[in-house]
Amino acid sequence: MTLRLAPAPAMADYLERAAATLSGSRRLDQGDTPCPPGVATPAAEWSEPLHCGVDLGTATIVLALVDDEGMPVYCDAVPSQAVRDGVVVDFHGAAESVARLKERAETVLGRTLDRAATAYPPGVGANESRACQFVLERAGLDCRELIDEVSAANTLLEVREGVVVDVGGGSTGVGIIRGGLLIDVGDLPGGGHHLNLILAGALGIGIEEAEELKRQDGGARGEGGVPQSQYLHVLRPGLERVAANIERLSRGAKDLPVHLVGGALMIGGAGDVIAQYLERPVVEYPHALLITPFGIARSN
Asked: What is the pTM of this model?
């Protein structure tokens, strides 16, 4: 039985198009390293109006734009430590980062952005989630939609029967979807930051260096071209912890496939580890870290 499944071709193509719109300032899937001008540009054409989404992540804040048909137009990101496990811990820093992304998008597109949607982890309370709204407003964006991250991701994926898992820097959000409806959602600690800690400890390096190594090695392939990170054996305990959280939050849904979303698990072989632990089919996506930002934009 094959446990690791490929995404539908249409969704894989959408994510490739989304990745092509990444701003020339930074490429998320290349360790946030600067790109030369012209390597990635906004879509050549789009239908009006544009819809904006802001993903306030633990490691990165992302601004994404889609057109009125939901197709990707633009994406940019900045590293940030202003949000921790979905809670805004540096309001000024988060607002400043969003304002900078907004200004860069306006310069590139030659237009003003005045509204956006944003999202929060499922486990975050009402007061903390409203802080995300206030960040956008301080940055000059009217918050038109505030949605949980799992629902945002599925706005793009449109899973009708499955478990959508959004693994971020600090936590893992899990939503059970039946008949196209989100029937249960939860969130537990454990994500990319914890994997960085494991790798840093094993190699005797700093956390930031571990994050960079993890991202640079994310696309590595082993024998037969199968995705295989050279650090997979080191990261396996952390990946299995994520899998245990998925299992805990999706009890009663073992008959459903698991869809992995978020940048924390863009590690060659991670999907296989999760699938083997859960003994369930797992769907991995290219450029998985773009799913939630573009889903947020499409929800607006």
From this structure: 0.89
